[in-house]
């Protein structure tokens, strides 16, 4: 019987898993609550499994519902990709392209490139997903992704755009108040800005620079953009892309000879999209944008300021 269940039933399942209630799922999907309820009941009947148990806090998914989640997400991503492809048909560059990039790249670097793309191709629609989670291109969570690690799947098309250098930076106001550290050991006396939860990047950085332990951070956030905002506000010393620091004359590089961490930057997309005109146009634009961004990572001057 399961093969007769339509996609809309799985969409309701996914929405209930996300929202935690039938009413919340109905609002998110723009359908009625009884309809969502019927979809869940049909799935439970088809699979002979209870998918949710009712509690005072809402609906709690059973192991069966949790096991179905990944498959439902894959169906959702495929349906979205089909819709994007269907809407792209016609003359010229048109349709939707979904881009995944880290928070700081998506917010600080890409907007100007996206504005140029829209000026050149007004029928093009861009969906930008700023997230530090690596989205799965093979499952079509996104069409194109900008990543700081080389892709490993053979089905992906990838272009290395260069190496983005991370350095330690602080606002001139902070250094005027607290002084400039002369050695890595001096950082213990300063307010360090860093991550809240351990990440693969943080583990790699800590392996090379043990002082970047979470306990050493006076200000913590898992958002790269929030960390950058705190550096700009003079809260303390934090890691920042040299290319971004180069935009602000008030940001000074600290200990440039002692701390440098390169990140390889890649623009990637699913190999099946090679023949898509809209995806090629966006892919090429993102490559050009990232190459220009990487070029801003230049050696610091004698004053310690990031070069332009």
From TrEMBL:
<dbReference type="Pfam" id="PF03466">
    <property type="entry name" value="LysR_substrate"/>
</dbReference>
<dbReference type="Pfam" id="PF00126">
    <property type="entry name" value="HTH_1"/>
</dbReference>
<protein>
    <submittedName>
        <fullName>LysR family transcriptional regulator</fullName>
    </submittedName>
</protein>
<comment type="similarity">
    <text>Belongs to the LysR transcriptional regulatory family.</text>
</comment>
<keyword id="KW-0238">DNA-binding</keyword>
<dbReference type="InterPro" id="IPR058163">
    <property type="entry name" value="LysR-type_TF_proteobact-type"/>
</dbReference>
<dbReference type="InterPro" id="IPR005119">
    <property type="entry name" value="LysR_subst-bd"/>
</dbReference>
<dbReference type="InterPro" id="IPR000847">
    <property type="entry name" value="LysR_HTH_N"/>
</dbReference>
<keyword id="KW-0805">Transcription regulation</keyword>
<keyword id="KW-0804">Transcription</keyword>
<dbReference type="InterPro" id="IPR036388">
    <property type="entry name" value="WH-like_DNA-bd_sf"/>
</dbReference>
<feature type="domain" description="HTH lysR-type">
    <location>
        <begin position="5"/>
        <end position="62"/>
    </location>
</feature>
<dbReference type="InterPro" id="IPR036390">
    <property type="entry name" value="WH_DNA-bd_sf"/>
</dbReference>
